[in-house]
Amino acid sequence: MKEAIGLSEATILDERKRQVHRTGQGELDLACNTDSLAGAVSQRACVFCGSRVVLYPIADALHLVHGPIGCAVYTWDIRGALSSGPELHRLSFSTDLKEKDVIFGGEKKLEAALNELIDRHQPKAAFVYSTCIVGLIGDDLEAVCRRVGEAKGIPVLPVQSEGFKGNKREGYKAACNAMWKLVGTAPIDDIPPLSVNILGDFNLAGEIWMVREYFQRMGVNVVANVTGDGRVHDIRRSHGAKLNLVQCSGATMDLAKMMKDEYGIPFIRVSYLGIEDMADSLYQVADFFQDQDPTIVERTAELVRSELSQLMPKLAELRKDLEGKRVAIYVGGAFKAFSLLKAFRHLGMQVVLVGSQTGTKEDYEELERITDPGTIIVDDANPLELSAFIKEKGVDLFVGGVKERPIAYKLGLGFCDHNHERKIALAGFEGMYNFAKEVHLSATSPVWRFVPRREQTPLEVTHG
Ligand code: SF4
């Protein structure tokens, strides 16, 4: 039988069909949290990269990549995370393994590199990342780190992040396991009762400073940033905080769970992106502490009122040009997509495609609940699928990270970087205005008039 099918359907490999869903079209039974399909390519990074993005912003630690130089280059200054003090994290050190090391082992080279770098930079701790080849040749990272740590008197922590051993989430877990060795190793006597740790914010463009300022106005003390503008000593005493605030569904949740099990510190999931989620996160913290401080809720309400009274008129101006435009979202952790969806509704824009690299079943159920009928929900997509979906849905603006940017530009549509490369703070109330300006600038740029959009062409295929 011969029939015409859409480009999107023809592009999805049979083995990937269960990783795509359309809101309102049948029951959601999305396959997710699995290894990427061989041969299908993927927007995902490797396990090593997952661990790097989480640990890298710890600014006074040494970060040594044990592997060929390419792994270190690939993740050099990967998040552009800002520091208010030391900037050791921005240097990318590597043992630069060569063929001879692969044959005879790289442990001696690793030990020499650690000794030299610790003497030269005097870090507060060192993280040593295992890459694919180290997993293959079987260097004993644990033993080398223990030896050097004892000799130098600082924590030297192996990060078991061999690139091939799973998907990016495994990297998050390896990072949390490494940080877990620091937690509980410094005194906590001077920590005040209203205290939190901020988990899962990486201080891109100084965002964690904005969020910390809100907490300061509420009278809440921040013990540790995990990990944006992070410090080793703060993480060591983070078990003294009364509450963990976890942003980003994947990256630091494992650490929050370990702290809950071991120290009984509860955690709540928060998001600092968009108006509702930012306000809701502050109110959740205020509610948590209101028994100790009965005026905290009122202080928080005043903060939110004052921020919104400045923000809303400015958003209304930008909304006039954005109303009705169509948006595609593809992000690392799906939790961010929830906030982005709400933020776009404030701008009068319609999200028609939303996907993530590492979403869980619960994440996708939530996405199905909050998206409009017909919205495409996709797990672990690849460039071909994303391009086909974007054409099918007539998208005006794509929101993603470094790997999604060329897809948008090749298709001739606006792009907003919501990941590693951006230099503009998008969190908090002030960030919402920056976000709206970014979106407005890109989606309404006259340059798109000169780029002919590639229209969808239905494919003629033969079945049976
Ligand atoms: S760890 Fe492996 S997959 Fe990751 S960058 Fe290095 S070689 Fe590539």
Would you mind describing this structure in some detail?
- There is one protein chain.
- The protein is of the alpha/beta class.
- The chain folds into 3 domains: 2-31 and 319-450, Nitrogenase molybdenum iron protein domain (Rossmann fold), CATH 3.40.50.1980; 47-179, 3-Layer(aba) Sandwich (Rossmann fold); 195-307, Nitrogenase molybdenum iron protein domain (Rossmann fold, 3-Layer(aba) Sandwich).
- The protein is 43% helix and 16% strand.
- The strands form 4 sheets. The protein has a 6-stranded mixed sheet, sandwiched between helices. A 4-stranded parallel sheet has the order 4-3-5-6, with helices on both faces. Strands 8-7-9-10 form a 4-stranded parallel sheet, with helices on both faces.
- The model is unreliable at 456-464 (pLDDT under 50).
- The structure holds iron/sulfur cluster.
- Iron/sulfur cluster is lined by residues 46, 48-49, 67, 71, 74, 131-132, 163.
Based on the model shown, name its key terms.
Rossmann fold, 16 strands, 16% strand, single chain, 43% helix, alpha/beta, binds iron/sulfur cluster, disordered C terminus, 4-stranded parallel sheet, 18 helices, 464 residues, 6-stranded mixed sheet
CATH superfamily of the largest domain: Nitrogenase molybdenum iron protein domain
List the ions, cofactors and other small molecules found in this model: iron/sulfur cluster
Radius of gyration: 23 Å
Number of beta strands: 16
Fraction of residues in H or I helices: 40-55%
Overall tally of structural domains: 3
Which class best fits the helix and strand makeup?
alpha/beta
Q: What can be said about the biggest beta sheet?
A: 6 strands, mixed
Mean pLDDT: 92
In what range is the share of β-strand residues? 15-25%
Beginning-to-end CA distance, first to last residue: 6 Å
Cross-sheet strand order for the largest sheet: 2-13-12-11-14-15
Could you name the CATH class of the largest domain? Alpha Beta
Contiguous low-pLDDT stretches (5 residues minimum) are 456-464
Shape call: globular
DSSP helical segment count:
18
What's the CATH topology name of the largest domain? Rossmann fold
Which architecture of the largest domain per CATH? 3-Layer(aba) Sandwich
